[in-house]
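Name: NIPA-like protein 2
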Amino acid sequence: MDGGKLGSKGELSSKNIFIGAALAIIGNLLISISMNIQKYSHLRQAEEKNETHYLKSKIWWVGLTLMVLGEIGNFSAYGFSPASLVAPLGTTTVIANAIIAVVFLRERVRYQDVFGVTLAIVGAFLLITFSTKEFSELTGKELAIYFRAWPFLVYLGLEVVLFCSLLFAQWRYDLENVVIFLLLVALLGSLTVISAKAVSSMINITLGGNSQLGHPLFYVMLIVMITTAIAQVKFLNRAMQSFDATVVVPTNFVLFTISAIISGIVLYKEFYGLTFLEIFMFLFGCVLSFIGVYYITSDRKQEETDEQLLLTNSDLFPGFLSLSTSKLIAVQPSNMLTATRVDYPMLPSKPTYESTGESHTQQVEIQDET
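Structure predicted for NIPA-like protein 2:
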């Protein structure tokens, strides 16, 4: 009898993990599609010289709705699957954008894109196959015990010290280094993942009939999740403003995924019970995903127009909450009253020869008048 119960519990846990993986993949697909729909809405308004506010566009709202549904799916995945599995599956966004760029935007198919997509798909397969199959949702009381464990307290202390040191060094010496910015994002991202998994688990348990909404930890984790997600946007935007997307995207994905995996191992013990071969194959799947993202995003030349640049590089970010929030910011026009001119604050503005010439002419005219 006991063996039967244990077996059914293991099967249920394995089934839930596959549900979580499916939610993560579908969620990232919806987010990718949503961003491209919103971009299409802005470009259509720009081509038609329509000065109507983009919030009145039905197409834009369809895109936003899909993004919300995608984020809900991505968030819910943490309640079913280990964080170490959900985070690497963010490659779905990169794969989807590569396919959309070729099929719908008629971009040229590059051999490295095909190679990168193939590696990312194989990596995702290995991640799902060799991920831990023993996973249980945690109540508020169980989470409190996990948070008081000394390995997590040491890990959290090291994260806080490293974050404060990097932040001080960046502020004191005015460092413009992509690794520093993205390490700050990754450190915040690990807390976002930890809190998102805790909130999602407690919501799932609540929906199952055992309410966790009265536990203070639920609201603490909710605040931590929102705060760290918003903070990530700031540093991610700084990185995108100072460095090319082809550098930021793969670096951010690698650092964010590593931080999520480490936090899952330390706090939720997600590698416990796995054999050496399973751990090796899981990590090998992560490496394949990293390489795949690198090949897909590398050597993408920035086009001359904002519209073309927007269609290729602005929403390649995989990840959770803050990354999609950054993409939402990037895809909206900076001029809130009209969509006829589309500016993207996430992308570095480069002066054109035409604008430089005009400014020089104006200065000469002023000097002549004086």
